[in-house]
Design brief:
The structure is a homodimer. By secondary structure, the first copy, chain A, is mainly alpha-helical. The first copy, chain A, folds into two domains: 14-53, Arc Repressor Mutant, subunit A (Orthogonal Bundle), CATH 1.10.10; 57-194, Tetracycline Repressor, domain 2 (Orthogonal Bundle), CATH 1.10.357.10. Chain A is 74% helix and 0% strand. Chain A is built from ten helices and no strands. The first copy, chain A, has helices at 14-29, 36-43, 47-53, 57-84, 90-103, 107-119, 121-145, 151-167, 169-174, 180-194. In chain A, α7 (121-145) crosses α8 (151-167). The first copy, chain A, is elongated and about 55 Å long. The mean pLDDT of chain A is 88. Chains A and B meet through α1, α6, α7, α8 and α9 of A and α1, α6, α7, α8 and α9 of B.
Chain lengths: 201, 201
């Protein structure tokens, strides 16, 4: 008997299999172009199990975004640690964060859930804490760059950096031939200056 | 006999009525939550007419985005003219553009079509020229602020400003209590410094 609720051969739990399959399918066919049937087949679970584990499709997209934000924050922590060990400069740190934003992996899903948040406050309420986790990471970066400024000034820097990192994905969304090296380097130099520092720092 | 192809009492052509109705309905219920039937009723046209005037729903969203970009570029031209007449400062000009981005009118639809562009290159190809029109406006603003720099440096400024203005909408998407005055003022001051200028300019 098929027991879809159990871990698969690789030890992945059904919830993770659904998230992974949804990531692939939503990325290729879009959120609304993926039926629950197709998702169940791809994740080797039953349709009922999807409904037991997730409230609705928004809930699955939010789970993917949460996982992505977690991954990105994990990468940022490694970057911070490298800055603290003086292995990389602040410009290099900001460039690394900009690179991730430009690579635009799962950017489509992020913009989709942002669109959902614009018209549905319950989606917005669930997205907000995830954005806050990412914002905390950026705030840490800005505070390392400018330990001398107060909370209000720091908040202004964080607003601009957040807007930039969220907005940079539009480049890769509309054009397949963005030079990620050049664009992330430029972004880092301009943002460093926005922070009131010299790009050589 | 009902003649839905004709202009209505206010003189609006069917295409404009469909765009206006779609803007309202997509904004309230989302792109995928709006059926063609409902759209036809709201626009006082037949379903057939929608299909004759637009290839598909993406085509309607692109038409809305095109109209919005046109409106925004129109507003930017007024802002440039005011800067050239020395009626407002460069900081005030950038703050005005940031305010529009933060107000986030139709931001949901923009993020939705950006999500579509991430997975569908034909959507990306149609979105690109609209983004380019907006980019030209921002480039004009950056060139007025820094007439002394070359194209490469100008391009770096424009990238950051574009990313910022596109990304700023996330604030209003996830939170209904953003202080637009404070955030746009901060954005303008930080961006002016990013451009290598003093906020008093």
């Amino acid at each position: 008997m098929n027991q879809p609720s159990k871990r698969d051969a690789k030890g992945n739990a059904p919830r993770d299999r659904i998230i992974d399959a949804a990531r692939r399918l939503f990325g290729a066919h879009g959120f609304h172009g993926t039926t629950t049937d197709k998702l169940a087949t791809a994740a080797s679970v039953s349709v009922g199990q999807i409904y037991r584990l997730f409230e609705d499709k928004d809930d699955i997209v939010l789970a993917i975004v949460e996982k992505n934000v977690g991954d990105r924050v994990g990468e940022m922590r490694e970057i911070f640690a490298a800055v603290e060990r003086s292995e990389i400069s602040m410009v290099e740190a900001i460039r690394a964060v900009a690179r991730t934003a430009l690579k635009g992996e799962d950017a489509g899903l992020f913009y989709e859930i942002l669109a959902g948040a614009c018209r549905n406050s319950s989606v917005a309420d669930r997205l907000e804490p995830m954005i806050d986790v990412y914002r905390d990471g950026i705030q840490h970066l800005a505070a390392s760059a400018r330990p001398d400024v107060g909370q209000a000034e720091l908040g202004a820097y964080v607003d601009i950096m957040m807007a930039c990192f969220i907005g940079l994905g539009h480049r890769t969304a509309i054009s397949r031939c963005v030079d990620i090296d050049v664009t992330s380097e430029n972004a880092a130099c301009v943002l460093i200056r926005a922070l009131g520092l010299s790009p050589s720092i």
